[in-house]
Design a protein that fits this description.
Layout: H1 17-47, H2 54-75
Helix pairs in contact: 1-2
């Protein structure tokens, strides 16, 4: 899975709209990439017949959480 990377050392001031937009877009790209990577990992575990393993269930839970976050962004018209 991709390493989490947050370029900000702290909160971005509300008046710095460009930096806030850049941070938001970076977060969105990261969420989408994590979702794709989890889908690939789950598919590999399915191919190995490991759908009842703890690892599969852990990854599936993460994928479902990411799917919810992405769905909320879409519902608000942000994606």
């Amino acid at each position: 899975m991709a390493e989490l990377h947050c370029p900000s050392a702290g909160p971005i001031p509300p008046e710095d709209a460009a930096a806030r937009l850049d941070a938001y877009e970076g977060l969105t790209r990261q969420l989408q990439q994590e979702y794709r990577e989890l889908a690939l990992q789950l598919e590999a575990l399915r191919a190995q017949g490991k759908t009842h393993s703890a690892r599969f269930r852990e990854l599936l839970g993460k994928k479902l959480m990411l799917a919810d976050h992405l769905a909320r962004l879409k519902a608000w018209g942000l994606m």
